[in-house]
Amino acid sequence: MIVSRQDERNFPMDLPDVISHILSKPGAAETLPFGPDTLVYKVGGKMFALASPDDFPAAVNLKCDPERALDLRDQYPAITPGYHMNKRHWNTLVLDGSVPAGLVRELIDHSYDLVVAGLPKGTVIR
Known about the structure:
- This protein is an alpha+beta fold.
- Helices cover 33% and strands 21% of the residues.
- It has a domain at 34-117: Aspartate Aminotransferase, domain 1.
- It contains 4 helices and 6 strands, in the order ααββββαββα.
């Protein structure tokens, strides 16, 4: 079966897909500050995503604008207040296929952009 780029955006994302997109962001780095059970993704030394590789179904925590976070939680049962995070600024996305892949990518980008915007002026992102 041949899949178009448009159709590809609608296929569910699994954790390797999410990690690949996270690490495609400039300056993104995977760290293990809490041990091997929690993958922490940072830019400029600040967290913008977390995942537990052994969870099933897989999930990822992402930073989010507080108003948008509430709207997303109302629209998608698989998006909940951030597990072990500030519930106002973080969401947990369960990667069960119910959140469109395009939206998952957009929320990764949003989290990254929020953190980059909050970095001190002059911070170099490589």
